[in-house]
Structures are given as structure tokens and as C-alpha cells.
Amino acid sequence: MAVPVSLRGDFGEAWLRGLARKTKDGPQARRLLALAAIYDGATRTEAAKIGGVGVQIIRDWVLRFNARGPDGLLDGKAPGQPCWRHLVSELLRSGASSRGARSWRRRLSASGRSRRRNASQLKRVSRS
Question: Which residue of 34, 95, 114, 125 has the fewest C-beta atoms within 10 A of its own C-beta?
Fold first, then answer.
């Protein structure tokens, strides 16, 4: 059986529980309480039950916590393609005409965005 990844030594169970009480982010509080249980001597399986996740997710939380502290337990923005408004504003900055609907559609579909946007949505973005 593999040895579990140990938690950082510069934090403690009482400090994590206090931070979980103060935070406004529910998922972060749940993660902090699960890690506080580990500091208190609970097994990873018990911590997984507290957090409502599997043991592998607890391991991921421990790694994130060890690397970045409590901020590592916050939900970050998921990676992926930028939203269509970002693409349209890039096109406007690059000098694209706001009236050429065909060129808009062509450029948006070439960038992997096949959704059609009506002219009022494009105008709204071009003003911002």
C-alpha cells in the first residue's frame, strides 16, 4: 500500500477550521474541513466522507494545498476556449469591420466557434 502524501507542517487543524468558518466559498470550506480532519488524525477515507468525494480527490486537494496553501483549494476558472465576446473584441481591435456579417461568421467559424450571433449582439460587443 502506498504512503499518503503528507500535509504541510506550517498549518494546523484549528487554523484550518477557523479559516473554513470565515470563508465565503462553500467548496473551499468543505475542502478545508476535510484537510482539518486529516490534521486531527482521521484517515483519508474518513476525510473523503467529510468532503463528499473519493480518496483520489483528497490526494489532489492535499497536493494543491501543499503547493499553494488555502488559496489552492479555491475553484479556479476552467481552461478552455475564450468566450465569443472575447473573440469578437479581438477582431474589432485587429481592424475588422463591424458591418461585415459574412466576415464575422467566417472568422468566428474559423476560430472554432460555429454559433451564429445576431447583429445586435455584435454591436453590443463592439461598443464595450
Answer: 95
